[in-house]
Automatic annotation (TrEMBL):
Pfam family of the protein (one): ACPS
Lineage: Eukaryota, Viridiplantae, Streptophyta, Embryophyta, Tracheophyta
EC number: 2.7.8.7
Gene3D superfamilies: 4'-phosphopantetheinyl transferase domain
UniProt key word Transferase: yes
InterPro entries: 4-PPantetheinyl_Trfase_dom (IPR008278), 4-PPantetheinyl_Trfase_dom_sf (IPR037143), AASDHPPT_N (IPR055066), P-Pant_transferase_sf (IPR050559)
Protein source organism: Urochloa decumbens
Domain 4'-phosphopantetheinyl transferase, chain residue ranges per copy: 117-219
Keyword Transferase listed: yes
Name by which UniProt lists this protein: holo-[acyl-carrier-protein] synthase
Domain 4'-phosphopantetheinyl transferase N-terminal: 16-113
Domain of life from the UniProt record: Eukaryota
Length: 276
């Protein structure tokens, strides 16, 4: 399927990238100097790789979509930590925004030209030292009664765990799209679906038609979710970073009803080559 203007879904499998220290430093050197301390602060190599690849994806995607020279790309963060692009003028994509996520083997990014976009990636890892029921019980306060019942009735312990991660993934994508911080009450969100299609959200018990949600199976152990919604639902700090929050019903309906892009798998080598 041809890429829509301003719409991207990119992922990188970091297990395929085994850089030497010099190769890692060369990739990091492609980024603005102020981005590098946030990468270096991680102790574990995999965490440093995820942090680096997340930023490479952001700069490469902006460069690729908007044709902005790398040295002119200005990515800032809200007080809640949400990255956003500072744009002087972009009439073609009045509300261009993106979101990144990483867990397990994958780092990903999603972008949209009009609607808010949130991306979350989860690794369905079996809990260590506790049963699946004990593990998901730790998160029960973030789930509604309806969601909890759907999860515990999913079947085998593996199916229960996967069902939990589906709900968790969707909640995180929504909160990230809004630009909210960790203090947002996930229990306020309740998801309904038909076999994990036609997914809808109830916020504080009220259904909203301003959002769309999609789940993707990246492989046997990883899921991704996309949330797309009206810019007026952005938290205040993020709303200030957006060019406009005015979206017509027709625009909103069109983008929520359009077929969803599949994820394109990139290698780190491809990313760095596109930035040189």
């Amino acid at each position: 399927m041809e890429e829509e203007a301003g719409v991207r879904r990119w992922i990188v499998d970091i297990t395929r990238w085994r850089p030497s220290p010099d190769q890692f430093d060369a990739a990091a050197a492609l980024l603005p100097s102020h981005e590098r301390p946030a990468i270096a602060r991680f102790v574990k190599e995999d965490d440093r790789k995820r942090a680096l690849v997340s930023r490479l994806l952001q700069y490469s995607l902006v460069h690729h979509v908007l044709r902005i020279p790398l040295h002119q790309i200005n990515i800032c963060r809200t007080p809640e930590g949400k990255p956003y692009l500072v744009l002087k003028d972009c009439s073609a994509f009045p509300n261009f925004n993106f979101n990144t996520s990483h867990q397990g083997d994958y780092v990903g990014i999603a972008s949209e030209p009009i609607c808010l976009v949130g991306l979350d990636i989860v690794s369905i890892s079996k809990p260590q030292g506790e049963t699946t029921t004990e593990f998901i019980s730790n998160f029960s306060s973030y789930l509604t009664d309806h969601e909890w019942n759907c999860i515990v009735r999913a079947g085998t312990s593996c199916e229960v765990l996967t069902e939990f991660y589906r709900y968790w993934c969707l909640k995180e994508a929504f909160v990230k799209a809004m630009g909210a911080g960790v203090g947002f009450g996930l229990h306020r969100l309740e998801f309904h679906h038909e076999h994990w299609t036609d997914i809808s959200i109830h916020i504080d018990g009220e259904v909203t038609k301003k959002w769309g949600f999609w789940l993707f199976k990246l492989d046997e152990m990883h899921l991704a979710s996309i949330a797309k919604g009206h810019p007026e639902d952005a938290v205040s700090s993020y709303k200030k970073a957006l060019s406009t929050v005015s979206v017509t019903e027709e625009q909103l309906h069109s983008t929520l009803e359009s077929p969803q892009e599949a994820f394109t798998l990139w290698t780190v080598e491809q990313l760095t080559e596109s930035m040189e």
